[in-house]
Design brief:
The chain is of the alpha/beta class. Helices cover 29% and strands 20% of the residues. It has an eight-stranded mixed beta sheet, sandwiched between helices. A two-stranded antiparallel sheet has the order 5-6. The protein has a two-stranded antiparallel ribbon with strand order 11-12. The protein is globular and about 55 Å long.
């Protein structure tokens, strides 16, 4: 597996754009069916193109399955277009990045082989970009997605990461977001009405996640539309991506052994995109106080299992 760090001049962003890539190596194309299937994997707020590299075991998962993973740097822009600032992240990822990576790397152009996924802000970005460019992406994986459009209508004040000035800078008029092209549900409606094939879709969220109600509502709306999709909730998991060290069960640090605040046995809270599998407690690295904390050994096995479950539910690989 090769790890590539790429900088190139992006027309959509009007500057050098950066992304990281895990690319399978030392494999027989006759056996793997190269060119490779591709997952464009989006980070959450406060993250960057290294978030999945340093804080998950996606490399091992990708290596086991001859999967190329492209991890772009989306800054804190919710993967939306802001032409006044040349921050056209939606056009960049949905169009230019796909074209650029296919030109640079041996990637499959097939719809069924091209997926997009993300966590939190990246979950929203994956849903919105994946549905906006549903002719490009054949699969969407959305973990603990920041589906906040309705709640933003009443957003006031300047406290917290989703304060009113920031929300307005990202989304514009907060009173007129639902039903627009910024609304993943509206894009889902339009895709259904078009009669075209709908991307395979996997959604998940922790039962203690503050985004659970928004994700459940989206899940139910998709059911009402007749959209087939996988939906999973994870017990005892909360959304840590926006918490500081004082609020997080990982804030006290990692115990060297035993059932500490971040050990699998403690039932520590997290984003909810990993699920108990085969009766074993799942655990993922947590974003606590500005730094990802990864306990040894427990992360590697269980993160891989979590991703494997997601892909299998999407029917993107043989069970």
């Amino acid at each position: 597996m090769a790890f590539l760090q790429v900088d190139y001049k992006s027309k959509k962003l009007g500057r050098k754009a950066h992304f990281n890539v895990f690319l399978p190596m030392d494999v027989d194309p006759a056996k793997t069916g190269a060119p490779f299937r591709t997952l464009y994997l989006l980070h959450g707020i406060y993250g960057n193109s290294t978030s999945w590299v340093t804080s998950s075991c996606i490399q091992r998962y990708a290596d086991d399955r001859n999967l190329c993973v492209v991890m772009p740097d989306g800054e804190n822009g919710f993967y939306l277009d802001h032409p006044d600032y040349m921050n056209n992240f939606s056009h960049w990822i949905g169009e230019e990045l796909v074209e650029a990576t296919r030109a640079m790397l041996p990637l499959s152009p097939r719809w069924a082989d091209t997926w997009i996924g993300g966590f939190s802000m990246g979950g929203y970005g994956a849903l919105r970009t994946g549905l906006k460019y549903a002719d490009t992406f054949g699969g969407i994986i959305a973990f603990s997605s920041a589906l906040l459009l309705e709640s933003l209508q009443n957003r006031t004040g300047t406290a917290g990461p989703m304060n009113e000035p920031y929300a307005r800078a990202m989304f514009g008029d907060l009173d007129h977001l639902v039903g627009t092209e910024l609304d993943p549900l509206q894009l889902a409606r339009e895709r259904v009405q078009s009669g075209k094939a709908f991307p395979r879709l996997y959604l998940s969220c922790g039962e203690q996640d503050f985004l659970l109600a928004d994700n459940e509502k989206f899940h139910q709306a998709l059911k009402d539309l007749g959209v087939e999709h996988a939906w999973r909730t994870t017990p005892r998991r909360a959304h840590l991506g926006l918490l500081g060290a004082g609020d997080s069960p990982c804030g006290a640090g990692l115990d060297a052994g035993g059932a500490g605040p971040c050990s699998p046995e403690s039932g520590s809270a997290h984003s909810g995109f990993l699920k108990d599998i085969d009766g074993q407690s799942s655990f993922a690295p947590s974003f606590c106080g500005g730094a990802f904390l990864r306990p040894p050994k427990t992360c590697a096995f269980l993160v891989v299992r979590g991703f494997s479950q997601s892909i299998q539910l999407l029917a993107l690989e043989a069970p």
